[in-house]
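queue> pop job 88
queue> type: inverse folding (structure -> sequence)
queue> payload:
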């Protein structure tokens, strides 16, 4: 029995170490440590570590935290400033917390929740400081909603995956206290029309938000998908403004200041404004416009002719998705896709369309309509409205995928047309 235990520990150790290394089933391994700390294997493949028949060997024992199967290699794509969710690898509508996209202006600060405080002051009757424990004592609220960066667009290459094109959107169940509850607690004055939200990262990120949004549906969130917020998502507390551009959901939130005018911070003057017609720029463009993207089949997958379930995600910052249409003939005709329940307000909604591909070259694409009647625009329409074909903030074009007769699926970049 003792021997089996040791073997088991070795196997577990080796496999979990592989998992940590992010090794694929075929990857060569560097040094592998046994439970006793001895180096025992080099260059073995994951398959070699598995028992020939899993029913003949006792499995790994229950652990403190679960792990992803070492065969599932799903990762974010980090750059200096952000990392993107692998939309093409997801099932359903919830983003696993460790795969939620990240966007940090100055890295992830390390914060002791016992020392963290949120100050609310300015045009209020009674300025107050809340500890994290104070915030958790108030009635709580949960909602499933997406969070999307307003800079969520990449294009210009055929070899781009959904993750690279628009992986700066993710969805969680967010839990916290309604900001309206805190507003009542401090007594927000009737003439307060804006508030400043400030983070405690090195960037001291600040944004002005209309007080109306605070009364409507703003949450001071301390949890995500059933556990405390991840440090990357703003631990221990963040502002969460559903449907609004991601930068307004200030992470590591430490201060809210009520005022009768916007604060004109760096993030709303030098950044987060978009060109519109006649050399003008728009400012405080908070709503995320409706968008959809096919996530299967997409680059880098390949397909065979015959039945294909086209799958994707659609969302709108202005309400619910009411319709997703799919075209399998490069936009000449459109068919209704099936929407998967639940169809939630300001939330990623899954769609699917079953199609029989005859193997000839074509393009597939999706377009969403939200409950305000807004229809997702084409790239050409957007480029005309903004006077640029380089993307920029709030760029949500219909995204097309080319199916090649040999089964390759490639992005079709509009700005190269
Ligand atoms: N304090 C602080 N809040 C922040 C940021 C930041 O850098 N610092 N980045 C903003 C931007 S630009 C986006 S898109 C979202 C990203 O949230 P996430 O990293 O949880 O996905 O957080 C916003 N809140
Ligand atoms: Mo962002």
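queue> result:
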């Amino acid at each position: 029995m003792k021997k089996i235990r040791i073997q088991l520990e070795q196997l577990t150790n080796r496999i979990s170490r592989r998992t940590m290394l992010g090794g694929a089933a075929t990857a060569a391994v560097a040094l592998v440590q046994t439970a006793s700390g001895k180096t025992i294997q080099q260059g073995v493949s994951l398959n070699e570590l598995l028992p020939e028949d899993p029913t003949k060997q006792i499995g790994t024992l229950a652990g403190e935290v679960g792990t992803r199967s070492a065969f599932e290699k799903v990762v974010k794509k980090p750059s200096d400033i952000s990392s993107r969710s692998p939309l093409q690898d997801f099932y359903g509508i919830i983003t696993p917390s460790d795969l939620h996209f990240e966007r940090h202006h100055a890295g992830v600060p390390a914060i002791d929740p016992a020392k963290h405080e949120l100050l609310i002051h300015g045009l209020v009757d009674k300025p107050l400081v809340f500890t994290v424990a104070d915030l958790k004592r108030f009635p709580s609220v949960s909602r499933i909603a997406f969070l999307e960066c307003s800079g969520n667009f990449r294009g210009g290459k055929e070899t781009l995956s959904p993750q690279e094109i628009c992986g700066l959107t993710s969805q969680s169940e967010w839990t916290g206290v309604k900001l309206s509850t805190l507003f009542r607690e401090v007594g927000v004055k009737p003439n307060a029309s804006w508030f400043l939200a400030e983070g405690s990262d090195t960037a001291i990120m600040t944004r002005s938000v209309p007080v109306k949004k605070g009364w409507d549906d703003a949450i001071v969130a301390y949890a995500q998908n059933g556990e405390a917020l991840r440090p990357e998502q703003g631990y221990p507390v963040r502002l969460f403004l559903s449907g609004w551009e991601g930068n307004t959901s200030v992470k590591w939130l430490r201060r809210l200041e009520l005022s009768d005018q916007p604060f004109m911070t760096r993030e709303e003057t030098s950044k987060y404004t978009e060109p519109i017609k006649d050399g003008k720029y728009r400012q405080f463009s908070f709503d995320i416009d409706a968008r959809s993207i096919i996530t299967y089949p997409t680059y880098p997958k390949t397909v065979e002719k015959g039945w294909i379930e086209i799958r994707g995600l659609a969302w709108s910052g202005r309400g619910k998705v009411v319709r997703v249409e799919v075209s399998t003939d490069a936009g000449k005709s459109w068919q209704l896709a099936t929407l998967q329940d639940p169809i939630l307000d300001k939330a990623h909604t899954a769609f699917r369309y079953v199609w029989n591909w005859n193997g000839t070259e074509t393009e597939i694409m999706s377009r969403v309509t939200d409950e305000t009647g807004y229809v997702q625009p084409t790239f050409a329409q957007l480029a005309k409205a903004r006077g640029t074909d380089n993307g920029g903030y709030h760029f949500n074009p219909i995204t097309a995928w080319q199916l090649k007769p040999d089964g390759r699926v490639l992005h079709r970049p509009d700005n190269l047309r």
